[in-house]
Hints:
By secondary structure, the protein is of the alpha+beta class. It is built from 13 helices and 12 strands. The N and C termini lie far apart (52 Å).
Amino acid sequence: MYALADCNNFFASCERVFRPDLNGKPVIVLSNNDGCAIARSEEAKALGIKMGDPFFKIKPIVERYKVAVFSSNFALYGDLSARVQEVLRGYSPCVEVYSIDESFLDLSGMSVDFKAYAEQISRDCRRQTAIPVSVGIAPTKTLAKIASKLCKRYPRLNGGCYMHRPQDIEKVLRKFPVGDVWGIGRHSLRKLEEIGVRTAWDYASLPESTVMGLFHLPGLRTWKELRGIPCIVFEDMIEPKQSICVSRSFSHDVTDLQEFTGQIATFAGKAAEKLRTQHSFATEMVVFAMTNRFKEDAPQACGGIHVLFPEGTQEHRSIVVAAAQTARQLFHPGYGYKKGGVVFTGIEQEEAHVESLFSDTRAAGREARLSASIDAINRSFGEGTLRFGIQGDGRFHMTQEHKSPHYTTRWSDIPGVSVK
Length: 420
């Protein structure tokens, strides 16, 4: 058996943890630079606000219905996600973190009342983190995801759904839209609609040869999972990324070389931290930037520069300096840059990394200790606390007019209680 624990409207729910006055009221969370809606409470969805709606287009709805608006606060969301995952690990030794708001639990070999178990997990997550979580349990991961969706649709399930009897699975799949099945994308959906497949049951009832001919092995795995045959492996270890990218749209058009260089160097520092977190080394880096394409009367530029390191590196100093030097080459005076970033490729794992015969091992050791110290201090005291001068203030500059406090990750933002 597998369980899927899915946090309901996660970003909106995180904002409500410290704002209980917003329970039952419409809430939306905006993307970077307050661009568009990336999370909506059920009440906001009922008003017709769709995922990805630009903020300027939905402002009339926001003002008319007094929708609570928040800029994205990923430090808060990441911390609350980690707390939910910690609760989940108390219910299974094998937890696969699928995304910031979803985790699979392997319940193989357990002999419990799974319906009560699902409700208990949901109840415990709510009690310990204040985040509402829907828990679906089923024989396959795909069916578990469907079961978790039923929890959101039917409050009487008390946050937990155990779906295992063939007749119950068939009843659910006959009404479940095939486009909502995990693994069925828009391209696949068009093909299925052309042959009259509308529900998950229609898909599961197709001949195996038809599924294989249309969608090959990935589609066949989904088909088998809907029929109760586990095919999607459980991964409780996160695979290292083969490329790492850190990029942002700037809050304004950047025309100053020093500001531009500082932003690119900051992106590189963050990417280097991600590289070290997964114990990897990078042999190549691409630094790229582009101007604001919506300003047709302004000079336009879009491009990148490829950097080859003499050997694989994860050193903070060398990466940041190389990125800053490359940014200077990329910059054109008089141009207003709207977006930039850094991409690492040629990534190799620590155990496969071989130092050059001519490497200065003592210097490499010092740089490794320096990088580790930077990471430790920034984790403890906040991103950008310790940085090189070339990085400027070491923070990403974004428009965040509606950002909530860092309630759980910054001492100055901890809520205070006054006793009279």
